[in-house]
Known about the structure:
The complex is a heterodimer.
Chain A: E1 9-12, H1 17-20, E2 30-34, H2 44-58, E3 64-68, H3 74-81, E4 88-91, H4 97-113, E5 122-125, H5 130-134, H6 136-140, E6 149-150, H7 156-162, H8 174-186, E7 190-191, H9 207-219, E8 226-227, H10 233-239, H11 244-262, E9 268-270, E10 273-275, H12 277-311
Chain B: E1 27-32, H1 38-45, E2 49-53, H2 62-77, E3 83-89, H3 93-100, E4 107-111, H4 116-132, E5 141-146, H5 149-153, H6 155-159, E6 165-170, H7 172-179, H8 193-205, E7 209-211, H9 226-239, E8 244-246, H10 250-258, H11 263-281, E9 287-289, E10 292-294, H12 296-325
Helix pairs in contact in B: 2-3, 3-4, 9-10, 11-12
Amino acid sequence: MNNRVSRVSMFVTPTNPRFIDKAWTRGGDVYILDIEDSIAPAEKQRCRTLIRESIDKASKGGASIYIRINKPFVDTDLPYAVWPGVDRIMLPKAETAEEMQHAHQIISALEKERGIPLGSIELYPMIETTLGTVNIYEILTAVDRKIWSMDGGSGYDMAVNLGIEMFADFDQYAYPIAYITLTSMALDIETTGGVFVPNTSGRVDQSDQAAEQAAALHRAGIHHSMALHPAFIEPLVKGLTPSIEEVKWATAVIQRFDELSSVGESVGTLEGKTVDIYENQKAKATLHWALECAEKDRFKEHALKKASSQSLPQ
Amino acid sequence: MISTPENQTQDNCFDTNKKIPKYIRRSILALSIDDPLLEKKSFDSWADAIILDFSKKSNCGWQQDIHSRMPEAINIAAKGGAEIFIRIDNKFAKSELEATIFPGISGIVLKGAHSAADLQKISSTLDSLEIARGVHSNSIEIDIEVNNATCTWNLLEIARSTARIGIFFLNEQELCINLGIQTEANLPFDPLEYIKSELITVATSIGGQAVGMSYPLSLASESIDGEILRKGILRARDTGFKGAVCPHPDWIKLCNSGFRPSEEEANYYVKVIEVFAEGIKHGMASVPMDGKMIDVPVDLRAKVYLEWAKRAKARDAEKQQAHHKL
């Protein structure tokens, strides 16, 4: 399965049965099993021991699985986190190339030991501090392990580091977000964040906020997002999937460009709008993304049906 | 067998002993040592910090002149409890440092720096002057007044060039001129938004801080209506600035009360800490409160904010004491 479709990645706490047992029914593309900030210190060890079974539980509905470990406990957490079925290890508050190299070495050894193809688990540095931001190039080029998407430079931890109040009505992270995005793109890593949508209430459970966020990301050509509450899943999945109208328009643009090309022309119009090589490329990207989404949705539907039938009372 | 840390109380990697912000310098006022009212103006200002400027006599005796007058100027400017800084021009740094470095100053404000090499030279000059003038080694801070594109481009290298670096601020008038941007504050957006955010990010990454003001007040040089200034300060604070260089003494009172958590915020954060602590007692590190999520970084930020409020209050008491003494 192409696990790069992550229209919404939602954090789940493995220690809470109410969350972990129901996750597969929620429709998320990705579940992030958290050992970090949503787990109380006294619960961390129990959480680690629950990760392996939680991978199976949360992925039953076809979602991909990421694990967020603790920066101070990398050595302890990774042996509990690297298992078949895990797509990405998230390293919070990454600040240096050395931290990446250290985690990479442990993951490589565990992949070998556990029969996981070497280098197949992504190591994703979460950039949540100003030091991580200014060191982003060194961090992203530290190890020979694919990072296919990147964002960061904002959020709760960055607010702590900057000593700022959150939920202002303006973009407080202009430089960190732009610098991380630019560096990622220069390294051919897809960017997954970077659009400011005001949320002055700070609430994390309002679906209209999610719809606004999805619309802003979609307009910027960004396909991915994160959520802290299940209410965000449906609007984000819907909002980041090309609509039928968009697919129809993209198909018509490609057709029109092909017609122009066949008569030796490179620029024309369709319903009064310009059609050229750039619009053609954009339309092809839309169709490609629509196909990837459709493939993921079919996969999830199939997995959900299978899991539902298995969970029916005998 | 996998080993488990026995003590796992450290639930966040931030160094909680590190103070945020590093310094309480909410209001910074520039005054000239040639001003006959220097003592009164500094004393009455209630500024957290004062930058002393000086003009050079046209004859070759300027260095001796400043050298003889500076200790007294430092002494009288500090009477109201402000920290004292001397503004140094990078072009004439060596001779100006020799004329102005004396006990009683917290640091220098370096204007017109271009590269890390500039800073290394100045730091080395300060090493010698600290010994010669009986000032504690490595105690004189260097603050950077950014006024040109080269300095902006080399910001990170400059920030990392010496452990003396303390705060950064923009000289927006001069930077705008250097960048070819209009200096009339009538644009519908802040043309320096990205640079300001870079300044804050870089300064914070080395454990320092940035001071500055939100647009368009950042280009103002006069007294401003209180409500407008209050809003501008709030925005500057929430961008990450920890104070401002005040172009007019009228700004100081509002900067002192604005570049710190308000009473209302402090009360809210007391509640956040209580709710989170209750959650932890029940084994939960993510607790809802009024639709918001309270977890480790939110709890930590609450603690940082309360500590900041406490330190700001203590700084006010220090200045109050200095005033009472006289």
